Amino acid sequence: MELVNTHAHTEFCGHGEGTVDELVQAARAAGITTLAVTEHYPLTPAFDPKAYLAMPQESVRPYLEALEAARDAYPDIEIVFGTELDWLGDFEDRAISDEDLAPFEIVLGSVHFVDAWPFDDPAQRGRWDEPGAADAIWKRYFELWCDAVTSTRPFTVMSHPDLAKKFGHYPSYDVGPLYRQAAEAAASAGRMVEVNTSGSYYACKEMFPAPALLAEFCRAGVPCTVGTDAHTPANVARDIEAGYRLMAQAGYRTVTVPTRDGGRRSITIA
Description:
Layout: E1 3-5, H1 20-29, E2 32-40, H2 60-73, E3 78-86, H3 98-101, E4 106-110, E5 113-114, E6 117-118, H4 133-149, E7 157-158, H5 176-189, E8 192-196, H6 211-219, E9 224-227, H7 240-250, E10 254-258, E11 264-268
Parallel strand pairs: 1-2, 2-3, 3-4, 4-7, 7-8, 8-9
Antiparallel strand pairs: 5-6, 10-11
């Protein structure tokens, strides 16, 4: 079966490894036909003082040049120029224009911050251990996620939709209403979501999104793609076929693949 990965990172961000060329070579060796390289869009020092979470602003041009060089060197694989753009809500301190995002053929939308707190950063996870924290954090996370989905940001795909489960902390209440709210927001905004296979390797021990949330997306008619969220070339193809199986179990019959020209194509999986 054709393999695609629409979410991958490199050494251009502070917590990634490997060059663009090494990532593409690993993807080709694994038989991937479409690879979206989606480096983290720059954050300001207020959010990323050590340039660890995202690529620095001065790295954007070299990053795009590396993508262009890889596209020229490896015409047998579709390389999609991408970025992963954080939704910061009311705390947004960047002036991001259409021109700034124009070089990117895919823009992943992500919520890594709950009111300026990087809730999924292992180095800053202390709030999760406070009494009742999961109840409040999950509610706020999904509020922000729905705000991002319905915003005017040109998000192509919404990444790891239930990232709040990363450390294995869950609220005491039924999350079904949050799932339905997320699915309705994505459907109304015409967004895509992804199955992000990296979740299986965190404390939550399952891909993003959870099967029940993925089923809600399917019922709402939300297109879905697959990304490994690789931060090293060795993981570029990790669990892609397992991601397809998860989609099929949720009711999907096709994987939707964003293309270089801004369009979409489909791969039949069931």
